[in-house]
Amino acid sequence: MANLEKGSKKLLNAWAFYDWANSVYTLTIASSIFPIFYSALFISQTNKVVSAFGFEFKSTALITYVTAFTFLVVSIMSPILSGIADYIGNKKNFMRFFCYVGGIGCIGLYWFSLEQIHLSLLFYFMGLIGYWGSLVFYNSYLPDIAFPEQQDRISAKGYSMGYFGSVILLLINLAMVMKPDWFGFDISISENLRETGTEIQIQEAIEKAKNSASFEAMKISFITVGLWWIVFSQYTFYWLPKGTSKGHKVTKDVIFNGLKELKLVWKQLKQNLRLKRYLAAFFVFSMAVQTIMLIAVYFGEEEITWGSSDAKTQGLIVSILVIQLVAIVGAVLTSRASSKFGNIKTLIIINIIWMSLCVYAYFMKTPLQFYIAASLVGLVMGGIQSLARSTYSKFLPETDDTTSYFSFYDVAEKIGIVIGMGIFATIDQITGSMRNAILFLFVFFLVGIILLFRIPKENE
C-alpha cells in the first residue's frame, strides 16, 4: 500500500467512504427498523412496560436510558483509548476494533427479545458503542488528511455519502419487511384453514403470517447492517494512514495518558477564546440535536395518530427516507452557505430552525404534520453535523496531536448526549409523554444560539 499525500483525492475519498460504511447503523438501527422492531415487541401490551435491572420501565424510557448509559461509557473510555492510540501512533487499529464491535453487535440484534432482555440490551450496547467509539478516531483523521480549505467540503461529502449509502441498504431492508414473500419468507397458511375457515379467519391468518415474516425480515436486516459496515469499511482501513508511528508500547503509566492530554487540552483552551466558546455552544446545541435524532422514530411511533399498524410502519418508513434524502441536500447547502456567510452565522440560523421544530413537534399529531417535520429535520440534520465538525477542525491551533483535541470534542458531545437523553427519559418516564420532553429541548437550542453569538471573530 502506497502512502497517500495529505489532501490527495483518493485519501479524502477513502476517509469519506467510512461514512458510507457506518451510516447504515444510524439509519437502520438507531433511526428506523430497530425502533419499529422494538415497538412491535410490545404490541400485545397496553401499558408498554418492561422489567429490567430490577425495575419496571416504560419501553421508550428504557431504551433511552440504555442509550444514555452507553454514551456515558464512551465519554469515559474514548479519551483513555485515544491517549493510548496517540502514544503508540496507531489510531487506525482502534478505529477498526470499534468498527468490528459495532458490526458484531448489529448482527447480535437478530436474537433481541424481551425474554432475554439483558443479553439483548448488551448487543444494542455493542452496536452503539462501536459506532460512536470508532467516530472518535475517524473524526480525528480530518485535519490529518485534509487541508483547512478542504475540510468543509470533504466533511459534507462524508455525510452525503453516508446518507446515500444507508438509503440504498434501507430500501433493500424495507422491501424485505414490506414484501417478505419476495425474499423467500414463508407467509403461507395451512390448507386445512383454507378449506374450513371463514373468510375473516383466513384473512386474519394471512395477516398474522405476513406480520411474522416481516418481523423475521427485520431481524435479518440487522445482520445485513453488521456485514455492510464491516465489509465496506475495509476500503477506508486500506488507504488511511496508520498514524504517526512512535514505536511506543502500552504500559500501566500510559493507560490514563488520554485523560492527562484532555487536561492539557483544557488548559490550552483557556488561551484560545474562540475554540473555548465554540465548544461551549457545541456542547449545548449538540445535546439537543443528538437527542432528537435518537428518539425521533420512537416519538413518531408513540405520539402520532396513524390509524392502523400498517399505516404506522409505512408512515415512519416514508418519514425516515424523506429525512435521509433531504439531508443530502441540506449538507451540501449548508457547506455552500458557510462559504458565503461564515460557519458561525450559518450555525446560528440552523439552530433557530431546530428551536422552532421543538415547538412544532409539541403540537403535531397527524401523519402530514410529521412528514413536514421530517422534511425540516432532514434539511438541518446533515448540515449541523458536518458544519459543527469542520468548524471545530478549523478553530484548532497548529498541532500534530489532533486525536486529543477531537477526543475532547467527542467527550463534550457524548456527555451532552448523556445529559440530554437522561433528562428526556426522566420526563418521559414521569409524565408518560414524550411531547413534554421534546419541548424541553427548546431551551438547549436557545442557549446554544446565545453562546454562538458570543464567539469572537478571527480578528478579535
Extract low-pLDDT stretches.
Answer: none
**Rg on CA atoms, Å:** 23 Å
Strand content: under 5%
Estimate the mean pLDDT confidence: 82
**SSE topology string:** HHEEHHHHHHHHHHHHHH
- Summarize the main sheet: 2 strands, antiparallel
Structural class: mainly alpha
Cα end-to-end separation: 45 Å
How many separate domains make up the residues? Answer: 1
| Oligomeric organization of the protein chains | single chain
CATH class annotation: Mainly Alpha
Strand order, biggest sheet?
1-2
Residues in helices, as a percent range? over 70%
Helix count from the secondary structure assignment: 16
Approximate shape: globular
CATH superfamily: MFS general substrate transporter like domains
Overall CATH architecture: Up-down Bundle
* CATH topology descriptor: Growth Hormone, Chain: A
Kindly state the number of beta strands: 2
Q: Layout of helices and strands, plus pairs?
A:
Blueprint: H1 9-31, H2 33-40, E1 49-52, E2 55-58, H3 59-88, H4 91-108, H5 117-140, H6 142-145, H7 148-178, H8 191-196, H9 199-239, H10 257-269, H11 273-303, H12 309-341, H13 343-363, H14 367-395, H15 402-431, H16 434-453
Antiparallel strand pairs: 1-2
Give a short summary of the structure.
The protein is mainly α and 460 residues long. It has 16 helices and 2 strands. It is globular.
Q: Your description of this structure?
A:
By secondary structure, the protein is mostly helical. It has a single domain, classed as Up-down Bundle (Growth Hormone, Chain: A), CATH 1.20.1250. Helix content is 79%, strand content 2%. It contains 16 helices and 2 strands. The chain has helices at 9-31, 33-40, 59-88, 91-108, 117-140, 142-145, 148-178, 191-196, 199-239, 257-269, 273-303, 309-341, 343-363, 367-395, 402-431, 434-453, and strands spanning 49-52, 55-58. A two-stranded antiparallel sheet has the order 1-2. Strand 1 (49-52) and strand 2 form a beta hairpin. Helix 4 runs antiparallel to helix 9 and helix 11 (273-303) runs antiparallel to helix 16. The longest helix is centred in the middle third of the chain and has 41 residues, at 199-239. The protein is globular. The protein starts with 8 loop residues before the first helix and ends in a 7-residue tail after the last helix. The model has no long low-confidence stretch (mean pLDDT 82).
